[in-house]
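TEACHING EXERCISE
Course module: macromolecular assemblies
Task: Read the component lines below, then compare them to the predicted structure of the full complex.
Student: A.B.
Group: 4
Components provided:
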Amino acid sequence: MIRYVPKAKYSYSAGQAQSVFLNGLKEKKILGTVCNKCKKVYVPPKMYCEECFKPTDGWVELKDEGIVHTAIASFVSWTRDRLEEPIISGTIKLYGSERDYVFPGMFHRICTTYDKVRDMSIIGAKVKAVWNEKRVGSIEDIQCFKEV
Amino acid sequence: MKVAIVGMGWYGFRPSTPEVSFREMVFEAASRAYAEANLDPRKDVDTFISSQEDFWEGISIADEFAPDQIGGYLRPTFTVTGDGVQGILHGIMHIKSGISKVTAVEAHSKASDILTIGDIVEFAMDPIFLRPAAPPNFHFLAALEAKAYQRRTGMTEEDMAEIVSIEKRNGFGNPRASYAANLNVSDILSHEKVAEPLRRPDIADFVDGAVVVVLASEDIARSLTDDPIWVEASTFTETNYPGYAELGEAGYLRGAYSQISKRKFDGYFVDDRYSFKLLEHLGVFKADPLALLREGQLGEGGSAPTNVFGGLLSEGVPLEAAGLTLALEAREYLRKGYSSAVVGSWRGVPTYTGMVLSMWR
Ligand SMILES: [Zn+2]
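Instructor-supplied answer key:
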């Protein structure tokens, strides 16, 4: 057996669209880009519309609340330890109709109970972002989305 | 049936590009390529090919991140783990097999995002035989070849410095040549050795950049332009271990060239990420490249014009976009009125994989 630990370190450039988004989080703002041609709103934002293949046309501020599209409860950590309390996370639709397949939204933690995930009552529930006091321009500036 | 290049676009070619994400950089290059081809990727392109490698991206299964920025959202997108010229080769196969009429090929580099690039190159080496014995500097693999080439041909360190001096000056006037410089042979020889016989100026730096190429079938190409550039491509891997390679002989490039139709080339665009590689690679296409260098035949108007826009020594090494960078140079050359050019590309250390792209009009 040959043991080897790769030293792979990166510093990812967020770029134009995602940098504006991350800076917005510092001010408790969820910002998306919009394509005027197809009306698609991108959160996380893109500086081009993938549908129309043209630059997006501007920024829109979305509410920091939405509805839970789907949610899960995970009982196992990244290192495969059993967790005492499950981590509950899911996708939150910030805008759009029930039937949209693609929507501006976020994957994040959801502050709720395991029971509500198991009986699926959390799905479709209205949730709002819980912001950290100290914000640094990271997706972690939001602690979780909590039921309102 | 022939296949043509009907559009090319590029973005970046600077040591770092903090203003764009890698996807935004590719979108910029793609927008330019489609504008040149006068095509709408959402309607007119049948297949999309991205040439990339997960460890360069810092994302595993990075092909999942390939489609949107080249217009391939919800469309057939295909990834080649290799150089952009290998991407072109697959594109040619898409078109010749009839599954596509127009194919877009992309390659890019965000080398500046990789904080431990030497370690990533080491990670590509054989884990049992090579990594444990490797000196802490991946250029040793190129030095092994340089030494073998010197012994075989009589190339001196002055010859290598001469190549660097010529190439760095050739880059002036090339908008992609961030590393163009006015250096003479004694400036270059004043540097200390990195790995015998290579000095720092013999080694091209990494660079960020993206290149997109639009390929089309013969009928589409003729309908789009009066002056299509026809292409043929090939690739060949010799081995993955230096003990099995014919060091200094560029067997990988000879293997690739053996599969290409023979024609007379007006210009040569070869991977020169190490100065001596210019000669080693040119030697695949022309006899006695060292004599051609010493006789001053490598410039425009000489008997073997080679890397007349500065090559990778001037432009930098944009990872898997290196072959397409040379293809941009070759196209620039054809636009000056020449009728044929050839690209001799290499995936760099620790590989022994080469690509040939023949271009003519
Ligand atoms: Zn759109």
